[in-house]
């Protein structure tokens, strides 16, 4: 787990090594254990290392394969690297380290760009072919590891975070109106390749990009499961599906124990993280460290779920750590969380994850997290209504159910020069749901949420907040084989029992019933939802700053209306509209974007 950066020139000039150094230094929180730079000809690479696998200096990066004349930088973890190393050794490859990075280089040497299809894991990497000048960039199937790009005439820069690209300079920081529309419509989801800045893009998940020396490139999407009923699963009973899901999750959790350091669990007390703890206990994991966070109550809303996390910790005898955050600390913590964001993120739990990660990183370097289960197994309360509509009407139902507001509302919020003439977010959903390969409306919805929304909202939050403290978060519910199995699972089994029916059935085999049959919980941060005093003060400062007025994204009359009644304006999904507006402006100011 690390941070990578680099620059490629296509105009005959040498890379700007000072810019690559600035990017690399900005990535220091992602990789506090080592720093490396490499440059040859028109390419320069930078790397910050977090030591998880092969703690020796043999695993340092950038890493070279002198026989194949390859140089690479890698972020993430290939969980099956030992099996691949054994296979590659049988094919004549020799290894000088015990690192998965070296296995990635050898796999590329043996199988070319098809190597990604053999990897079980989360990753982003860049490989340079020294003889041809070709540069290959790749990202894992579910986009768990980020890769941001800034392309200008004659030059391509890349980094593990958007702020790292800003540190290099020369980025067009004007607002992308389409991305802004997505941000305000789709609960801050901005699908790849866009970001809210015109000058920064991101490599889509499950994509390999081959960049030629002249700057031309070609992309190959190497994975997309079919959301249909596959023949090999025909005739399976509900019990058969429960066993299949439990076996696949068990394998996913087992894979994510691969490390040369201890692995803990972020335990919310909900079904998903509790299942991870239960399966690790079944694997014989002793002295498992678990971590929970809670907040003070505000507006009559409870801010913790310690009852359930304590119950699970006691049941499985974990080494449990509990963090209670007072409301007055949230406003101070907010700035640190926003600084860690590669893109603006409005979900309340982003600050919670940042605070929790700070504490967890003092104890362990790796944790498993339950992120992704609700999207993969249809756990949210809105899925049953969306599933009832005919397949051709899926897009309209999705936008009506999930979007924060309709396109017409944006005209009252935004200044004309950043307001798209069309409902670009609705168009995106229509186009995605119309693609063949999803049998029912729910299949189409889950495909969209799993492969777009989840990647650019909850998954990104977890990566950004944990890695800002040098903490690696692994997400077994996003094991690609488990996702493939869930995609083929009949919708009625996922919707059963109030959502995640097949997963709840699996949970009843290994968890106390009280944990499985409890009401669904969320990660509550009441002080943000209800604009408690210290948070509101920070919001007012951001929106009243000269930069906000000069930027001119939001109509001033709209901002004044929000500030006059901070807790009164809600999106269709119940989010605080003031928080949406203020978070974007706070993010822009924090990253000194003018």
TrEMBL record:
<dbReference type="InterPro" id="IPR017932">
    <property type="entry name" value="GATase_2_dom"/>
</dbReference>
<dbReference type="InterPro" id="IPR017535">
    <property type="entry name" value="Asparagine_synth"/>
</dbReference>
<comment type="similarity">
    <text>Belongs to the asparagine synthetase family.</text>
</comment>
<keyword id="KW-0061">Asparagine biosynthesis</keyword>
<keyword id="KW-0315">Glutamine amidotransferase</keyword>
<keyword id="KW-0028">Amino-acid biosynthesis</keyword>
<keyword id="KW-0547">Nucleotide-binding</keyword>
<dbReference type="InterPro" id="IPR006426">
    <property type="entry name" value="Asn_synth_AEB"/>
</dbReference>
<keyword id="KW-0067">ATP-binding</keyword>
<dbReference type="InterPro" id="IPR014729">
    <property type="entry name" value="Rossmann-like_a/b/a_fold"/>
</dbReference>
<dbReference type="InterPro" id="IPR051786">
    <property type="entry name" value="ASN_synthetase/amidase"/>
</dbReference>
<dbReference type="InterPro" id="IPR001962">
    <property type="entry name" value="Asn_synthase"/>
</dbReference>
<dbReference type="Pfam" id="PF13537">
    <property type="entry name" value="GATase_7"/>
</dbReference>
<dbReference type="InterPro" id="IPR029055">
    <property type="entry name" value="Ntn_hydrolases_N"/>
</dbReference>
<feature type="domain" description="Glutamine amidotransferase type-2">
    <location>
        <begin position="2"/>
        <end position="214"/>
    </location>
</feature>
<comment type="pathway">
    <text>Amino-acid biosynthesis; L-asparagine biosynthesis; L-asparagine from L-aspartate (L-Gln route): step 1/1.</text>
</comment>
<dbReference type="Pfam" id="PF00733">
    <property type="entry name" value="Asn_synthase"/>
</dbReference>
<protein>
    <recommendedName>
        <fullName>asparagine synthase (glutamine-hydrolyzing)</fullName>
        <ecNumber>6.3.5.4</ecNumber>
    </recommendedName>
</protein>
<dbReference type="InterPro" id="IPR033738">
    <property type="entry name" value="AsnB_N"/>
</dbReference>
